[in-house]
Amino acid sequence: MTAHLPAVPTATEASGVYRGRARRGDMAAAEDDFAEFVRVALPGLMRYGHALAGNPHDAADLVQTVLEKVGARWSKISRNCADPTAYVRKAMANTHVSRWRRTRRETLLADFPDIPAAIQQDRLEHEPLWIALRSLPPRQRAVVVLRYYEGLSELEIADSLGISCGTVKSQASKAMATLRKRLGPLVGGGDA
């Protein structure tokens, strides 16, 4: 009678098993790294999203949408990007612009709803600065928020949005001129 011994894996098979375990370990490390990134960056991303979208509810949707996409590719992004936060901000700006373009079209309804939806008012909804900021085009709004609200330099903004420093300067200039024009009477003659 011959005893059947379990097959011993070859060196190639063993290394494949080891690489598979290493990959699973790398995936767990990448998930932990992404969770830590979200924990640290989330408050700033929510502020940025609020300023882009104009209200906290759309901001939360925007941040969640972008983080879902980024989380799926986190290991590649963290390996290839020097500043993942800038990458996420750029993705947020692009997603916001895409959503804005998609939803600015008129939506026709066959019938009006029977009961109007109760909308909870944002405390900043009627604030003149927020109204003026929401009226800016998306790219100008993004530049203003990153520059004056998040305190980024022109170079950091250019990297975040994937535009040149000259474009950052011109967009900031146009945005500030528009804000001064709209808020001038409120701040005493337009020297905002």
From TrEMBL:
GO-annotated molecular function: DNA binding; sigma factor activity
GO BP terms, alphabetized: DNA-templated transcription initiation
Domain RNA polymerase sigma-70 region, first and last residues per copy: 41-105
Keywords: DNA-binding, Sigma factor, Transcription, Transcription regulation
A Pfam family assignment: Sigma70_r4_2
InterPro entries cross-referenced by the UniProt entry: RNA_pol_sigma-70-like (IPR039425), RNA_pol_sigma-70_dom (IPR014284), RNA_pol_sigma-E_actinobac (IPR014325), RNA_pol_sigma70_r2 (IPR007627), RNA_pol_sigma70_r4_t2 (IPR013249), RNA_pol_sigma_r2 (IPR013325), RNA_pol_sigma_r3/r4-like (IPR013324), WH-like_DNA-bd_sf (IPR036388)
Record-annotated RNA polymerase sigma factor 70 region 4 type domain positions: 132-179
Protein family membership: Belongs to the sigma-70 factor family. ECF subfamily.
Protein name from the UniProt record: RNA polymerase sigma-70 factor, sigma-E family
Species for this entry: Saccharopolyspora shandongensis
Species classification: Bacteria, Bacillati, Actinomycetota, Actinomycetes, Pseudonocardiales
